Amino acid sequence: MAAPESGDGNNGAARMVTLISSDNTRFEVEAAAASLSQTLQLTILDGGGGGGDGIPLPNVDSATLSKVLEYCIKHAPAAANGGAPNATAVDRAELERFDNEFVNIDQSVLYSLIMAAHNLEIEGLQSLVAKKVADMIKGKSPMEIRRTLGFPDPTPEEQAEMNAHMLEYGWAYE
Amino acid sequence: MEPGWSSLPADLLRDILARLPWSSHPSFAATCKHWNTIVSPFYPAWLTPVLLNAVDIGSTNIRYYSPYYHKIFEVAETLDSPDAKICCANGDHLTLYYRDGHYIIVVHANLATGFIRKLEPLPIRHTLDFVIDDGERSMFGIRAFAGTVEVARSIQRNDDSFNKWESSEFISEGLNFRTSSMTNPVLHHGLLYMLGEDGRLAVYHYML
C-alpha cells in the first residue's frame, strides 16, 4: 500500500483521494475537489481516502456521485481562491452558465443531488438545487407542485385537506 | 417513511422555502402534511387586506395592499361617486359612504370578489357620523348630535342584499351624553361602545 502523500500538491501532481459509492464504484478525484464536502474534508485532512483505501459513501449511488463530483471539480478552483478576489467576471459567468445547465435535469435526479449535498455537506450544491426547486414550484398550486416533483396521487383525505387549506388561506389565487 | 420530496429533511425544506416569495407559502404548506410543518403560521387571507387608498378623480377606485400577497389589488367595480368616505374595514369587506343628491348611500365592497353592494339610501337629514359593519351581517349607522345618539341598523339578507334601515334612539337627552369627537364607536361582541366628552363610556346593545 502506498504511503499517503504528505505534500499539499503545490509542487507537482495534486493529491488524489478515492471515493466509493454505495454500489461499489470507485471514483478517484483531486482532494481539493472532494474537500468541497465539509464531511469529506475532515476525513481528508486526517489523511484518509488516499492510496488503496477509499472513503465509502454508503448513502450515495454511483450515478449521483459522478454528478456530485462533476460539480465539485468545476467549483474547486473558485473555492480554493476563497471564492472571489481573483475570479474574473468571465470566470463567474462561466460558473453561472455551468450551474444553470447543471440543474436542468429531472426532479428525481435533483432529489438525489440535494440529498447527497445534504449528507456530504456541500453547501454550494445544496443551495443550487434548493434554488432550482424553488424556481420550479414558485407560483404553483399544491397539486401542480405535487405533479412537478412526482408525488404520488393524493389520497382522498389529502385532497380534502388541501382543499380546506386553500379555502382558508388562498382566496385570491390567480 | 418512503424517500422522496414528501419526506425531505426539514432543514432542506426550509432552505427551499426561504427562496420562495411569501405568495407561494400557502401552496407550499398545502402540498403535504410534512411540508405544512415547515411553514410558520400565517394569517388567513381574509384577515390580511389592508387599505391603501381610495383614489378620487371623479370616480372612486378602491385599492388596497395585501402583505400576504405583497401586492396591490384594485376593486374591479368603480364607485361612480366622488367624495366617498371610508368608514370601516372588516375582514374582506370595506364600508364606504357618500352623498348622492339628497341621500346618503352606504356601500359595502367585497375586496375579494370586487363586488360592490349599495344599501338603501338614507335621506340627508340622517347624516351619519359613523358607519360600522359588525362583520356578522349587520350594518350600523350612528349619528351623535347635541346629546342624542341615533343608531340605525340594516341587516344583510341571505342573498347578501341589505334590509331597510331601522332606527332607534339610543340615549335620551336627559342623560346629556355627548360623544367625544376624538374617538369612534367600537363594536365588540354585539355591543356598541362610545366614549363621551366627559369620559363616560356609553354601551349600547341593539337587541335590548
Automatic annotation (TrEMBL), chain A:
Q: Quaternary form? A: Part of a SCF (SKP1-cullin-F-box) protein ligase complex.
| Record-linked Gene3D superfamilies | Potassium Channel Kv1.1, Chain A
Keyword Transcription regulation attributed: no
Functionally, this protein is described as follows: Involved in ubiquitination and subsequent proteasomal degradation of target proteins. Together with CUL1, RBX1 and a F-box protein, it forms a SCF E3 ubiquitin ligase complex. The functional specificity of this complex depends on the type of F-box protein. In the SCF complex, it serves as an adapter that links the F-box protein to CUL1.
User: Which pathway features in its UniProt record?
Assistant: Protein modification; protein ubiquitination
**SKP1 component dimerisation domain segment(s):** 124-163
SKP1 component POZ domain: residues covered: 16-75
Return the similarity comment.
Answer: Belongs to the SKP1 family.
On whether Lipid biosynthesis is a keyword of this UniProt record, the answer is no
Q: Name one GO biological process term.
A: jasmonic acid mediated signaling pathway
Name listed for the protein in its UniProt record: SKP1-like protein
User: Which keywords label this protein?
Assistant: Ubl conjugation pathway
Automatic annotation (TrEMBL), chain B:
SUPFAM superfamilies reported in the protein's UniProt record: F-box domain
**Domain F-box residues, every copy:** 8-48
Source organism, top-level taxon: Eukaryota
The protein's matches in Pfam families, at most eight in alphabetical order, are given as: F-box
Q: State the protein's name.
A: F-box domain-containing protein
Q: Which gene encodes it?
A: gb22734
